[in-house]
Amino acid sequence: MAIRVAHVGTGNVGRLALIELLTNPAFELTGLCVSTPEKVGRDAGELCGVDVITGVKAVNDLDAVLATRPECVVYCAMGDTRLPDAMRDVMRILAAGVNVVGSSPGLLQYPWGVMPEKYIARVEDAAQQGNSSIFVNGVDPGFINDLIPFALAGTCQRIERVRCMEIADYASYDGAEVMSYMGFGRPLDEVPMLLQPGVLTFAWGTAIRQLAAGLGIDVDEITQSIQREPAPEDFDIAVGPVAKGTQAALQFEIRGMLNGRPAIVIEHITRLRPDLRPDWPQPAVGGGSYRVEITGEPSYAVDIVPSSRKGDHNHAAIVGAAGRIVNAIPAVIAAPPGIRTTLDLPLVTGRGLYAPNDLVTT
Questions:
Q1: Within this chain, do residues 107 and 52 fall inside the same structural domain, yes or no?
Q2: Fewer CB near the terminus (10 Å): N or C of the chain?
Q3: Residues 297 and 156 in one domain
Q4: What Cα–Cα distance (Å) separates residue 219 from each residue in 157, 213, 264, 298?
Q5: Angle, in degrees to the nearest 10, between helices 83-95 and 117-130
């Protein structure tokens, strides 16, 4: 019997997650919640570009969606810029007895040691009230920082350092809100939300703490460094014009320090043109890749290069983020109530997803 699932949010990740819910017979869509007034009343298939009339119309009412009695909600509403609202949403869903998988709120990937205990307790209380569980994940922060390095670490005899990297050209990324949040196309004397004091260590602290927990260590502190590069002239990207002198490339590191040494490092190199800062690390192939490095015995350097029949590296990475949470739905439903992480869930293997090329529809 198909799992009854409702969906919240049809942005970049949400739209692709919705496609999987509509095309995978393991799921039955019961309801759809959106925030954009123009999307209300439209069919779920239309909103995600699938040539299917589902009969499920988008609403702007979370209670109405919960009234459709789903077993799980896929929560993909924006969380970075509306964290309090996103937290309230997921607590409401959990308390109603409905499980959650989501791309946000990102802090719930692994909140311990990052989020104040009183806020964690509120989520746990809601989950206990509803006998429900929540799993939040993505790409980075996400499976590049947990699933992949844990798989490699499990083959080592000794580990000195773990480094996870995203190296990508974001010119084709059409999320204007995220690009502004990161400071792209903004003056260098303006500090964007992502680069405000403490935000990087807050946002990626979840990944650092979860890696540390998996390795059985306690980092002493989490530090960061940032480099920004201006545009050499005016040029255009997917979300609009980038003026000369505004931010066009960004490099940052978040480090989990132990005894004065970086034990865990997460690094991002993000460009809007491939010729910017050639001295920074380059992607393995094309416009973007991820790299996981383990220094130890043995040492590893593994490049992950997302690609897709439907778009470029940015599109492919978002497909991966959507697939990570949707494919985890059965495991999350079966999990004990509470906040669940990659350390808790069984390995999600892609069972039921095999399809020869002539049957591929997404």
A1: yes
A2: N
A3: yes
A4: 20, 9, 9, 22
A5: 30
Residue 318 forms part of a structural domain: no
Domain boundaries, position 264: 147-313
Q: For the segment 149-178, what is each residue's pLDDT rounded down to a tens digit?
A: 999 999 999 999 999 999 999 999 988 988
Instruction: Tell me the torsion sign for CA atoms 327, 329, 331, 337.
Output: positive
Contact 104, 200 (CB under 8 A): no
Same domain, 226 and 262: yes
C-alpha torsion angle, residues 48, 86, 127, 19 (rounded to 10): 10
Residue 167 CA to residue 317 CA, distance in Å, equals 12
Cβ distance 34 to 64 under 8 Å? no
Number of domains in the chain: 2
Three-state DSSP class for 90? helix
Kindly state whether residue 320 falls inside one of the protein's structural domains.
Answer: no
Query: What is d(CA 179, CA 184) in angstroms, rounded to the nearest whole number?
Result: 6
Across the chain, mean pLDDT equals: 96
Same domain flag for 160 and 306: yes
Spacing of C-alpha 330 from chain mean position: 19
The verdict on residue 300 lying in a domain is yes
- Residues 223, 197 contacting (CB under 8 angstroms): no
Instruction: Write down the pTM of the prediction.
Output: 0.94
Note whether 16 and 125 are same-domain residues: yes
Phi, psi of 186 (to 5 degrees): -105, 155
Task: Report the alpha-carbon distance of residue 36 to residue 311 in Å, rounded.
Answer: 25
* Alpha-carbon gap, residue 207 to 210, rounded angstroms: 5
* Together in a domain, 124 and 9: yes
- Return the H-helix or E-strand segment holding 240: strand 240-242
